[in-house]
């Protein structure tokens, strides 16, 4: 059920699969990773694992913003939601992310004010419409989402809103790529690069990865094409960045969006759930916009919870193991009762694997 | 003339006024009968099907229907897919203080119109008023009974390997229509809910294929939930042909935008039937043009429901874990 029928043509797919099988026959064991939740889901939705030769393994890296949001951010959001006169606005899939003791969904059930929005600009609209209520927007997401949040901050400033703040927990993709690049345990042969993030940042962020990289879209033929090109580069021993998503991604990305991010935010060290602190991998609001910082305005602690749940999210996100190799997977940790955040979002590595993975014909 | 519901309409003369000037004239096909504590009606011979359902949908009015139409169709469809001919229905209303009476009248009219078209007698009901802030404007409960013809034995446990799975029409319209109209999702579409009574289609199918194994309307949880229930109850697996499942282009695009699988999105006027493979042609002729054969029942397997994808892959179809939440990006 592709949104673009021409990119899921069965005959072209069959031809690509034939070529993939032929090239894969010339390769040994191949580990390919994607670092984008939409890729994770697209791979599951079209049943790609059921079609690929056995020596091709697809790993899901740290590409789901829901999954890498630390528990203390959810705790802080929950604390806000329980304050009188404060409403927390959140993307839908964030409300099930476990904090150190409970999720926003559980906070809502015991009286917290939590509302789902689908765009940061809706937070601006909500705040403008109800000046007597204070609103906190849970600002998570990678470079795909950050420009929209930056725009919302700018709009709030322009409208002079004093009842809207942002709980900023954005994470940046290049530091995650650096983590993967320098990981001695990770045996990665190729990277399926995130299409949306690349549309903002361009192709240059993948230079020096040391492995073949293909910028890929999200339709079935996009995925098959990128896997084929990666395998060809692996077989030839070449190591380049190729863009197969040129209908969206320009080599230099979207400079306007990047400029907007830098106008509103500056980089800071930040913790990633399951992975730990990565230098300059998060964002905070720049000085003129600090009045919109929920952490300051609501005096939120945001200390590292140091949770040890036995969950292997970190190992999964770094590609050291597949989700079903975690001892909690599918037994203690299921979508109805997620232990780690990777089981929460439909795009989380574990949730996608639970929903779609493990199938063999 | 009452314009807005207040707590005064919860009892005594206020309640009588509400019933006599708003609820009964807009709900009942015929007026004038004395209000007794219980409906007394002639026993229907043979076996009865009995069902109940509560309706809490938001918004109360949506593209393609409203809570009244939904309440009528929901109960009628639950009876119809069990092979029953719906005959009597109860209607209970929980009204929140502040509810606009014009809206109440509109949804009661919708409920009444569906019941009249299906030959269902609204025979009893109840009305309560709750404090402002305790509810969401209006909740409804409908219960219904209907007669089941002798010889019919429909059950989710009846699917057998080799049977065919048929869907009555295109899927996922209700859930998309509701989500697109919820406040604060900031997303619009032209999709209309499929909300409709299924009594005639179900009866037509049973007439054409009396040994139909299972019928189920695919409400919450959508096709994924219903087919997993059938597979579990019957101890079988179901293999779906992804390219055969009817989904409109608008629904596909909306689901892609919201990050949802159409198979997991709710329907309110669409049902699945499992029929013997030899009866497929008769079944499709009875249900009509929008129907499609979408899958085959197989022996039990580790993955109860699977679907073939557009590029020839296969994936499991899981029961959704709970409320569908739009994704971040």
State the main characteristics.
heterodimer; A: 361 residues; alpha/beta; Rossmann fold; five-stranded parallel sheet; four-stranded parallel sheet; 14 helices; 11 strands; B: 329 residues; alpha+beta; 60s Ribosomal Protein L30, Chain: A; Phosphoribosyl-aminoimidazole Synthetase, Chain A, domain 2; 2 domains; seven-stranded mixed sheet
User: Would you identify the regions of chain A where 5 or more consecutive residues have pLDDT less than 50?
Assistant: none
DSSP, total strands of chain A: 11
Q: Quote the CATH topology of the largest domain in chain B.
A: Phosphoribosyl-aminoimidazole Synthetase, Chain A, domain 2
- How are strands sequenced across the largest beta sheet of chain A? 2-1-7-8-9
Gross CATH architecture of the domain at 66-173 and 253-297 in chain A: 3-Layer(aba) Sandwich
Strand content of chain B: 15-25%
Radius of gyration of chain B: 21 Å
Folded structure, characterized:
The complex is a heterodimer of chains A (361) and B (329). Chain A has helices at 10-24, 37-45, 65-68, 71-81, 104-109, 120-129, 146-158, 173-181, 195-201, 220-236, 255-264, 294-297, 313-317, 349-356, and strands at 30-34, 56-60, 86-90, 114-116, 134-141, 164-170, 190-194, 213-216, 241-243, 265-272, 276-285. With 361 residues, chain A is an alpha/beta fold. Among the domains of chain A are: 66-173 and 253-297, HypD, alpha/beta domain 2 (Rossmann fold, 3-Layer(aba) Sandwich); 313-356, no CATH class. In chain A, a hairpin with a 3-residue loop joins strand 10 and strand 11 (276-285). Chain B has helices spanning 12-27, 67-80, 101-118, 173-181, 199-208, 222-234, 249-258, 280-287, and strands spanning 47-55, 61-62, 65-66, 84-96, 121-130, 138-148, 164-167, 214-217, 236-241, 271-275, 292-299, 305-308, 314-316. Chain B is built from eight helices and 13 strands. In chain B, helix 1 crosses helix 3 (101-118) and helix 5 packs antiparallel against helix 8 (280-287). A seven-stranded mixed β-sheet of chain B has the order 8-10-7-11-9-12-13. A four-stranded mixed β-sheet of chain B has the order 1-6-4-5. In chain B, strands 2-3 form a two-stranded antiparallel ribbon. The chains are: A alpha/beta (361), B alpha+beta (329). Chains A and B meet through helix 1, helix 2, helix 6, helix 10 and helix 14 of A and helix 7, strand 12 and strand 13 of B.
């Amino acid at each position: 059920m592709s949104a673009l029928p021409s990119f899921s043509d069965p005959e072209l797919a069959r031809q690509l699969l034939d070529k993939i099988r032929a090239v894969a026959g010339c390769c040994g064991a191949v580990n390919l990773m994607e670092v984008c939740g939409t890729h994770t889901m697209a791979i599951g939705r079209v049943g790609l694992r059921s079609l690929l030769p056995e020596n091709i393994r697809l790993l899901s890296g740290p590409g789901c913003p829901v999954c890498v949001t630390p528990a203390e951010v959810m705790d802080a959001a929950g604390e806000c939601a329980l304050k009188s006169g404060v409403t927390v606005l959140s993307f839908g899939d964030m409300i099930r992310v476990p904090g150190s003791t409970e999720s926003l969904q559980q906070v809502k059930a015991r009286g917290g004010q939590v509302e789902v929005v689908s765009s940061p600009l809706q937070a601006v609209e909500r705040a403008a419409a109800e000046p007597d209520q204070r609103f906190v927007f849970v600002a998570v997401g990678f470079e795909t989402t950050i420009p929209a949040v930056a725009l919302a901050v700018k709009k709030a400033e322009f409208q002079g809103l004093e009842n809207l703040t942002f709980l900023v927990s954005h994470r940046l993709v290049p530091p995650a790529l650096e983590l993967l690049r320098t990981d001695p345990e990770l045996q990665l042969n190729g990277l399926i690069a995130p299409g949306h993030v690349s549309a903002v940042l361009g192709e240059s962020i993948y230079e020096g990865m040391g492995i073949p990289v293909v910028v890929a879209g999200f339709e079935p033929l996009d995925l098959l094409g990128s896997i084929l090109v990666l395998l060809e580069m692996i077989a030839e021993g070449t190591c380049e960045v190729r863009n197969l998503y040129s209908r969206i991604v320009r080599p230099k990305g979207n400079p306007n969006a990047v400029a907007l991010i830098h106008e509103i935010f500056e980089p800071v060290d930040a913790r990633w759930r399951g992975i730990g602190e990565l230098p300059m991998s998060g964002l905070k609001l720049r000085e003129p916009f600090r009045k919109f910082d929920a952490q300051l305005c609501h005096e939120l602690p945001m200390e590292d919870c140091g949770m040890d749940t036995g969950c292997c999210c970190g190992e999964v996100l770094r590609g050291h193991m597949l989700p079903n190799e975690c001892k909690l997977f599918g037994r203690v940790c299921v979508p109805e009762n997620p232990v780690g955040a990777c089981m929460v979002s439909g795009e989380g590595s574990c949730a996608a694997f639970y929903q779609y993975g493990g199938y063999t014909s | 003339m009452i314009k807005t519901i207040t707590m005064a309409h919860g009892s005594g003369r206020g309640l009588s006024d509400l019933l006599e000037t708003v609820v009964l004239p807009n709900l009942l096909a015929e007026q004038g009968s004395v209000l007794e504590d219980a409906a007394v009606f002639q026993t229907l011979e043979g076996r009865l099907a009995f069902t109940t359902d509560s309706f809490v949908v938001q918004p109360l009015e949506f593209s393609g229907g409203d809570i009244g139409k939904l309440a009528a169709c929901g109960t009628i469809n639950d009876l119809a897919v069990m092979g029953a001919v719906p005959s009597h229905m109860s209607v209970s209303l929980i009204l929140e203080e502040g509810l606009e009476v014009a809206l109440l009248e509109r949804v009661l009219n919708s409920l009444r119109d569906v019941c009249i078209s299906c030959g269902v007698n609204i025979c009893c009901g109840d009305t309560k008023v709750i404090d402002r802030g305790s509810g969401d404007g209006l909740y409804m409960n409908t219960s219904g009974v209907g007669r089941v013809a002798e010889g019919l034995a429909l059950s989710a446990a009846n699917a057998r390997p080799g049977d065919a799975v048929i869907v009555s029409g295109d899927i996922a319209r209700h859930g998309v229509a509701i989500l697109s109209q919820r406040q604060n999702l900031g997303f619009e579409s032209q999709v209309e809910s499929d909300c409709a009574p299924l009594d005639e289609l179900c009866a037509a199918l049973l007439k054409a294929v009396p040994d139909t194994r299972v019928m189920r309307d695919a409400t919450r949880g959508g096709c994924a939930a219903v087919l997993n229930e059938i597979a579990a109850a019957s101890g079988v697996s179901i293999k779906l042909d992804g390219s055969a499942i009817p989904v409109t282009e608008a629904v596909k695009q909306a689901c892609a935008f919201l990050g949802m699988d159409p198979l997991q999105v709710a329907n309110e006027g669409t049902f699945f039937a499992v029929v013997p493979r030899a009866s497929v042609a008769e079944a499709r002729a009875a249900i009509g043009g929008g129907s499609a054969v979408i899958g085959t029942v197989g022996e039990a397997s580790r993955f109860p429901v699977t679907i073939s994808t557009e590029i020839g892959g296969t994936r499991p179809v899981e029961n959704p874990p709970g409320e569908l939440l739009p994704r971040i990006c």
